[in-house]
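If I may wish for something, please walk me through the protein I am sending here so I can picture the backbone:
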Amino acid sequence: MNLNERLQLEKEILERIDQIRSLDDAGEVSEEIERAILERELRELESQLEGEEVLVLRRRRRG
């Protein structure tokens, strides 16, 4: 994943947190909810990176 893709993903995560905050009457999101969102997004990012590592290894072996 290149830098632009990572920045885009981080921006999307922050936008999702802002959306949740706007839905909350008090304007506060519990740390548990924020942590759960971030952990889920990080798992998605890690799974994407694992797939890219496999592609890199395959390319190197062919070369």
Q: What stands out?
A: The chain has a mean pLDDT of 71.
